[in-house]
Amino acid sequence: MSINKFVIILAATAASILLLLFALRGQSVMLDRLNPIIPVKPYYTIVQTDGKKLNDTQWEYQLVGYDDEGQQNTFIMIASKNLRKGAYLEVYAKGLNGKGWTEVTPAGIPEKAQIKLSSPKESS
Fold it and tell me: For 64, 83, 87, 104, which has the most beta carbons within 10 A of its beta carbon?
C-alpha cells in the first residue's frame, strides 16, 4: 500500500469518526460525557421541582438552562442534596450531562439568560 492511499484511508477514517461523534451528540448523557467535541459550558437555571431521590446522597434533576447568549439546553444533573425550589443555579453542562453546579444570585446571571429565565414558559 502506498503512502498516499494510507493517508487517504486515515483521513477518511478520522472524518468518519468525527462525523459520528457530531451526529451522536445529544443522544444520551453517557455519550455526551465521553464525546470530546462537545464543550463544557455554563448554563443558568432555576430549580422548579424536587429532585428524584436516587439514594440517601443523590438527587437527579432534569433542568432547562440558558447560556450567556440565551441559548436553551436541557440537561440531567446529579446533586448531593435536594436543592431548594426557586434557587438560581449556574450549571456546567456538556450536552445532556450536567457536570457541576453553584448557587448564584439573579445579579450573577448574564442579561440574555435572565430574560429567558424571567419570561413565561411557552407551551408546546
Answer: 83
d(CA 37, CA 62): 23
pTM: 0.73
For 36, the grid coordinates are 470530546
Look at residue 6 and tell me whether its pLDDT is greater than 50. Answer: yes
DSSP-derived secondary structure letter, 50: P
Buried b (16+ CB within 10 A) or exposed e, 28-40: ebebbeebeebee
CA 83 and chain centroid, separation: 18
Instruction: For residues 85 and 82, give the distance between their C-alpha atoms in angstroms, rounded to a whole number.
Output: 9
8 has pLDDT over 60: yes
Q: How far, in Å, CA of 64 to CA of 55, rounded?
A: 23
